[in-house]
Design brief:
By secondary structure, the chain is of the alpha+beta class. The protein has helices at 47-51, 74-87, 95-108, 184-199, 245-256, 311-324, and strands at residues 19-25, 28-29, 33-35, 54-56, 59-63, 69-72, 121-130, 143-152, 163-167, 204-206, 223-227, 233-236, 262-265, 277-282, 286-295, 298-301, 335-337. Strands 1, 2, 3, 4, 5, 6, 7, 8 and 17 form a 9-stranded antiparallel beta sheet that branches. Strands 9, 10, 11, 12, 13, 14, 15 and 16 form an 8-stranded mixed beta sheet that branches. The chain binds pyridoxal-5'-phosphate and 2-OXO-4-methylpentanoic acid.
Length: 339
Amino acid sequence: MKNIDWANIGFEYMQTDQRYVSNYKDGKWDDGCLTHDANVVINECAGILQYCQECFEGLKAYTTEDGSIVTFRPDLNAERMMDSAARLEMPQFPKERFLAAVDAVVKANAEWVPPYGSGATFYLRPYMFASGPVIGVKPSDEYQFRIFGTPVGPYFKGGVKPLTLCVSDFDRAAPHGTGHIKAGLNYAMSLHAHSVAHGAGYDENMFLDPATRTYVEETGGANFLFITKDNEVVTPKSDSILPSITRRSLVYVAEHYLGLKVTQRPVALAELADFAECGLCGTAAVISPVGKVVDHGKEICFASGMSEMGPITKKLYETLTGIQMGRIEAPEGWIRKIM
Ligand code: PLP
Ligand code: COI
């Protein structure tokens, strides 16, 4: 195990020992291998550099209570990446190979996987980009798929302190666009909004539906979860948000572990004040509580307040992380044991 102050690391890149790489050429993927080389060398006219043909994933490896190292539902990351690739006219990286490559990267960097109870986890970043040259606007003929891993702490500094969001004047995704896939271009689009929000002192943006700007979509890197005053879970349904694996898992946990009613439906900005709790959910965010949303000067404060996570959000958080860390029995197929 590396000598790192695990409890105090942030969500930052740290270069680890080995990463996986596979190249696509002449209509097929090569065998792929691990490499110590963290640098990518590509042609100046590569499709990624000119037309942003790229997609990625994010998942974590956890050290469980019994000392095993596991990943959480990596099959869903493999499937979502195949969906992203298809939408971007990229070749799909086969699911079984994706899973084997994740396992290989975790095993090769086992010393970098934070210990149980440290609050840190090992974040894995699979990604694929157009490596072949294109000058006319069209899909490339060549691609590279890679996975690296890096130990990370909490995505939001301050841990479980509730966040303050602002309703963004920018859109994250166009109607019928790419909001539902994990394309790097969605994040490039969000950086200006992100800087504006940070500059004004907010933790994150709340993006609205781009067509009518009346419904809640998501933030730049997580889906929303709301709790009503009657302890019901409500989560926004939209074709332009990313189908979060954390959110889909929490819906199951709420229904089957906690016996809560869950509704997935469009959520209007106008009804936010009626909710008791609000949280952001995602691999990086886990569940981060939101205390307040500011809509052009108008403050919408959730009943759970600004000092701690609301009680239902907390139960969801404890159950989900309990499953991921092996303290609570997982549903069939959710945990993939690596070593
Ligand atoms: N929404 C966006 C825009 C994201 O980038 C992410 C992170 O992956 C999520 C939601 C959460 O998805 P997941 O729970 O699969 O990590
Ligand atoms: C993740 O949660 O894995 C993401 O990709 C979100 C990103 C903002 C770090």
